[in-house]
Each structure stands twice: as C-alpha cells, then as structure tokens.
Amino acid sequence: MLMHMKGHNGKSPCRACRIDGILDPRPRSTAHYTPLHRHPRTHSYDPLDLPNRTHDEFMQHAASVDGAPTDAEADRRATHFGINGTPALAKLSSLKFPASFPHDFMHLMFENVIPELISLWTTDYKGLDTGTEAYHLRDSVWSAIGEACAASGDTIPAAFGCRVPNVAKKGTKHTAESRLLFTTLIAPVLLFKRFDNDKYYKHFIKLVKLINLCLQLELRPGDVASIRSGFAKWVKDFERSVLPLKQYLRASNLILFEL
Fold first, then answer.
1. pLDDT digits over 149-199, tens only?
2. Residues 112/119, Cβ–Cβ less than 8 Å
C-alpha cells in the first residue's frame, strides 16, 4: 500500500519484478497465477533472471498512470503495470522503488506458502487430486500429527514462541507465529516417514532450511547466494516434480502450459 501497487492478486503482482500473472478462468475468480514454465509458444521465466523493476522504470510507469486521459485508461494502465500511480513516499529522494522496501516475508511464507502446502497435502486442493503423484497424507496420519502438535505445547518452553494448535482440526485459528513454529520446529519431526514417497518430505525440508537461513540474525555473502539459488530451485522442483504443472492447470482449467 505504501508503494501504491496493486498487490499479490494483480496481473503484475510482484513488487520486485515484472512477471505476468495469468487469470484463473473459473467463474468469479480474481486470482492470478505466476508459474515459471509456460507453453513453448509463450515466454517462460528463469527465476534467477527475472525482469526486475528499476526505480526509473517504476516512476515512469507511475507517471503514465497519473497522466492517463480517462479514468478507464488509468485503470487499464494500473492493471498492466501493477502500479496505481505515483506514491506519496516518492517525494523522499532517499527512497528507491522498489529497492527500499523489504519483501513481506510473513505473508508470503506463513500466510501463503505454508497454508497452501498443507492444503495440498491434506485436502482436495482446488479440485486437484494427486494423479500419478502421492503427496496426500492419509487422514489418520494427519489427525495424529495434529494431536501431537497440540500436545507439544506442554513440553516446549514458552521462550520458543506461542503454543501450536492442532493443525488438523477444522476451524482452528492459526497465526503466522504458530505456522513458523510448526514449520521449523515441529513438522520436520512429525512429517518424517509420513509421506508414501520420501521426495515430498525432502522437498519440504529444503524449504525449512531456506526459512532458517532467512531468519538468521546475521547473514554472510554466501548465505545470500544460497537463499537466492535455493528458492529458485525449490520453486522449479515444485513445478516439475512435486506438483506437475499440467496436472495443476488441468484442475484449474488453465491448459496453457507444457513442461
């Protein structure tokens, strides 16, 4: 909001790069998806070479929205660029867009990626079955994991954070903090040997290691490079192995892509 951008559901959702989203064609859906791999006749993205936004480009696009001759044209340009106009903070010459603004790690990871992964493992996620894969956890296994989470608060010191609720119980309120603790402290133990195919557990543990790197109080140059390359590989592995795109897009009626 401070950057005066459309946000994560926009056609150009990323504050750091110009990756294009594709609208979910299901009725009344406003969600956009940004897969890396797309149909051979369209552009696919290299996660290590994304079309990054620059300050000068950002301000040019914002000025273009401001200078639109009609409200309808302003809306069209704002949708295209992902920018609603020139932000008030642009008056501060010390700020650079988007470099001066950090990623919203809490929402990106603990209100998005982790809940989506859990939904994928435990439900008929967006009408998607496992197809030829085997990433669904059995109901009895997930129930036991949820009960163990709830019981773990009796023996985990409060200094580690809030009590993690039963993650398998419907209607349970979760916070970003409880999802952080579940992901980094509890799940690596409780999910061990629980998937029918161990590759899903290994893929999850790679994410946990990346999260722990991001949460370190001190980062070395080598850590930054590991985070960058690690997340790029994690997403590519997700699309190619953990959740084959053709299967996901078939469920979403988005048959636009091939691997």
1. 999 999 999 999 999 999 999 888 999 999 999 999 999 999 999 999 999
2. no
Q: What is the mean pLDDT of residues 193-214?
A: 95
Tell me the residue range of the domain where 191 lies.
105-215
Residue 90 is assigned to a structural domain of this protein: no
CA distances from 217 to 126, 158, 212, 214, 220 (A): 37, 20, 10, 9, 10
230 falls within a domain: no
Four-CA torsion 246, 119, 241, 40, nearest 10 degrees: 30
In degrees and rounded to multiples of 5, residue 91 shows phi and psi of -70, -15
- Sign of the alpha-carbon torsion through 235, 240, 241, 247: positive
The domain total for the chain is 1
Report which residue type is found at 77.
R
> Does the pLDDT at position 115 exceed 80?
yes
Please state the pTM of the whole predicted model.
Answer: 0.85
Q: Which of 50, 63, 47 is nearest to 97 (CA)?
A: 63
In a domain? residue 24: no
Residue pair 59/65 in contact (Cβ under 8 Å)? The answer is no
CA dihedral 139, 140, 144, 147 (to 10 degrees): 60
Residue 118 has which token pair?
């859990």
Q: Is 17 helix (H, G, I), strand (E, B) or coil?
A: strand
Is 28 a domain residue?
A: no
Among all chains, which residue has been given the structure tokens 């439900």? 123
